[in-house]
Amino acid sequence: MVPVLLIVGFVGFLLLNLIPGDPALVMLGPEATLDQVNKLRAELGLNLPVYLRLIYWYGRLFRGDLGYSIFLSRPVFQAILERLQPTLLLTIFSLIIASAIGITSGIIAALKRGTWIDRVATSLSVFGLSIPSFWLSLILIIIFGVWIKWFPVAGYTPLKDGFLKTFRTLALPSLTLGFVSSAFISRITRSSMLEVINQDYIKVARAKGLSYGKVILKHALRNAILPIITVIGLTLGNLLSGAVIVETVFALPGIGQLALSSILRRDYSLTQGILLFTATVFVLVNLLVDILYAFLDPRIKYD
Amino acid sequence: MQLKSKMKKIILSVLIVLLIFLMAGGNVGVKGIFKFRDTVGHRFELEITKLSNKGIIEGYPDGTFRPDALLKRSELATMLVRVKKLTPYKPSISTFKDVATSNWAYGYIMAIQKNGLMKGYPDGTFKPDANITRAELAVVLGRLKGLENEALKITLPTITAYDINKVPSWAMPYVDLGFQPQYNFLTGRAGYIAPQENATRGEVAYGLYLVINPPKFSGTLKVAIFSNPATFDTHNTTAVITADIGMHIFETLFTYDEKGQPIPLLVDSYTVSNDAKTYIFKLRKNIKFHNGKEMTADDVVASIERWGRLSSTGKGLFSIVESWTALDRYTTQMKLKESVSIVPTYLASELSVPAIYPKEVIDKVGDTPLKSVPEEIIGTGPYKFVEFVPDDHIKLVRFEEYSARNDIPNGLGGRRTVYPDVLLFNIVPDNSVRALGVTTNLYDFAEDISPDQYGKLRIDPNIMTSVALKGWEASVFNKKQGILTSQKMRQAFLAALDMEDCMKGAYGNPDFWTLGPHLMSKTNVYYSEAGKEWYNQKNIKRAKQLLSEAGYKDEPIRWLVSTNYPTNYNIALIAKDQLEKAGFVIDLQVLDWATLLKRRADPTLWDVFSTYFTFLSDPTFILTIGPAYAGWYNNSTMAQYISQMRSETDFNTRMKIWEKAQELFWVDVSAIKYGDGMILNIFRTTIEGYKKPPVLTYFFWNVWKEVK
Question: Which residues of B touch A264 (CB under 8 A)?
Fold first, then answer.
């Protein structure tokens, strides 16, 4: 894990410094003269050579310090923590929706393979994979926010103002993300179920006289679950590292918007911090998935 | 086969439902409120619309209201009868010798006379066909409000205006009351009360509406803005968003009136020596900062000094400042090395605002940008900074100890009253979501909505639209290095362009762009059409000829443009096509804005870049005609014009120099101006008192929320 993070940090640092533009330019606005820019650069410590800044950055990192965001006037770690709540809740809600839609439609499609139900389910998942999430967001906003007026069209209410309010603000973005991410889960569920469903032991189970539902859920799904878990894990990682587009459309102050605006402003230390955060999330989720493997399939052992 | 057709049916119905959703998405029904066709964008549009929907005022049969036409006394009497819900009173003998019983308004006039709202003249006449003056209107509205007893208590006016002395004594108490924040039923005319002039139909509608619905001191005003400000430190940036928000928190020594001319704000009065080399500013007393400290000359000296070090406008001024000192606690003095006529304009600047900060904050932060925390964002403004949650909101609250000026509101100047308790700027990057947020009552105001939505929103009964000037679209040439250092090449570039195509392509809706060679806005006193023969030539032949005269050999022109500003990008695409027809070889480099800024700083990397400029208050502030701005324009004649304008005090002489300078801009082509672009701001009809600012995007003092 540690080497992965170190490499991510290194590559990220170089990439960021390769993009032209710097925070001083952005902060001073379009009409600034070169003098002013150089002056502010010196004050922000941006006039040091890249390798020195990299060394300083690693030095601080090993002391557990992610640096300081110039634009947000607060430590990077704090800035990320402040943004965690909406992203975390959004992830949880969307993952529930995505798994519910994805697994159910996947199973049904597999069972009704070749029928029109299968085709509808498959086309829906193609639709989900190819639909731009900002478009779906706007459609949902118009339907549920403008016409039926169930949910606000944008914004975020933090948990401390009441769970119901938070839920209302997150409903539409969760629905969007849930639907879009369900597509992949559905496809994997379908193919993985198809593989299992024609195996002999399924026939045996049915022949034993077990109920259809029990066979599907206990015998088939359990054996088909590993790839599904992998995909859900990937989705979890993606969602946690911030859904940039959906967060921007719905004006949610989450990790995704933070990442985007930090890049646009060239807020180097913040972008670096988010990059490390994202890498950590992916490593941890992978670890979790691996542990789940062993739990779900006793044949898998890690030495 | 059967399965297939079933599936087709399902897919078809899904598609149809989706299609209906999409099509119906743009359809907000027109019901309830009716809008007159000639009041769109008028400053009293809101009050006229609301009052006509209450049935108190009526328009003309052709669907117009004619808000700037005058109103007869008999017509006012009719409106008052409707407001008071009186029944017309028709005694057999008329009280007034000039109102016959057969007069169409007889019943109304007598009813209103009986009620005591309009009493007629001492000579026994009513003058039903005379237009009502503004002084008379003040009295009538005051009586309608029931302020007779209040009026008796007033002996001296508490408000001031340029023409306060012209208010007749019989009207003075009502004029004074009518401008008080809790009543607010009178409006000034650019700082004048104009008591002897006739009231317009719009002014009457405003007054009646305000008498019925006085402003309330409560509520949260929610404004949807498009982006985070990179900093709140107005000295340190030229970003418009920082100035837009900063103006609510910080104040300046001078600000702009309705016509965009500087008027005192924190300054009480000032004197200029005859040679325009010494300015003495007397500050207003008892002005409190948000931290409770009184503002004194020390704060002012420190703030303006810092602004002079950090901002490009400030540097321009301070390059000729000999000394800038505090004479006593409330007086400062600026001595200049050469004559400068426009020091107040400098000190009102909206492009990196010379805001006054407390001295101790400046001592603490030095030249580094202020942090976005309440301990450092301290001003004297009507709103106080509470918090900034990036990507979410900026929260300001009413500053209870704010000391307002007592002159009547005039543009950004005059008395500032904060009615809402809280002013919340919500950061909503997507423009359609901002619009939907206002239509669903999530926000009260949203800036920068797509012009495509204008037609729909203009007829929405809950929405007011405000089309505001954004600035001018421009491409700036590199005059230091490369092929466009040749004047002929730049002239060829200009000759080939069809500005109408460019602006139409970028803005679409013709309500959102205009053409013209002016570099000062149409509302500014320095507006001029000088150089119009060079603007919008669309002359490919001439361009080709100029190119061959310049000896152009198909060297690629490196053109930097950013997709962060879609209108810049679209114009560049259209212009590229036109230029290629004339024989130019264009290498369009599409970048993000930060990259463009970086590359622009190096003269070896580019030949032309696209941007847009906001219209400024004084010609000498225009960056692209000066040598410091990217493009490095070094023209000695232009430099001479600028320095002459800086020192000249006489308006007519300045105007003449400016016309020559603008002409030179088009002849020497230091940059291209394509046209003026507008933006669409919208707000709910519950937001009252909103006025377009003379500079920048919006302001939210003297604005209140209707309480039902």
Answer: 592, 594
